[in-house]
From TrEMBL:
Species whose genome carries this gene: Streptosporangium minutum
Pfam families from the UniProt entry: TetR_C_1 (PF02909), TetR_N (PF00440)
Protein name (database record): HTH tetR-type domain-containing protein
Residue span(s) of domain HTH tetR-type: 1-60
Gene Ontology biological process terms, A to Z: negative regulation of DNA-templated transcription; response to antibiotic
Amino acid sequence: MPFERIIATALEIVDAEGAEALTLRALAQRLGSSTATLYRHVDNRADLVGHVVERVFSEIAVDSEALEGADMSRACEHLARSLFDAIARHPNAAPLLIETVPTGPHAMAFREVCLSTLLAHGFPPATARMLAAALGRFVIGFALQLRTDADQQDADKQAGDRLFHVDPAVYPAISRTADEATVPLAEEFALGLDLLLRGMRDFAAAGHDHRG
């Protein structure tokens, strides 16, 4: 059985049913095969997850021309959005990114670009590594909220209703802001990313490293 078909089918399960549905038994059933056959290609579920995550990373579209000559903020914004867009095509796969440290060829290539960008803009190695990790965790944190299954939407609506009807005498700040229109996740992501990049610029301008 082609390895590519195994990983593509595993990602199909995640896309359709969620990360928790990805098991070797479920994958074998979907393929009309056996778990014994799958064990010829992957060691265990963790190994399978690593390959699925690598498949997601293979869809990251980094524009080298957009990075060339760009300042630090624009370059990092492009990288962060490229990662976010790739995960957004497979929102149910987002939880898998916190189950493993991606080390496949595509993941390593993306990490190399991120670190090279930060090093090229004057950050020392230790700080560059921490900032690259912070950007990645920021993106994944937002990506975890992209799932659009009915249960999640219903839970979000119920939470919104509870916030709207709080007692203003007990929660005056919540009450004062509850009737503001819900901001789309994309706008929250853009604001948070802008603030993070501003902080990185200030950090660089002050000449700090991560211990400063």
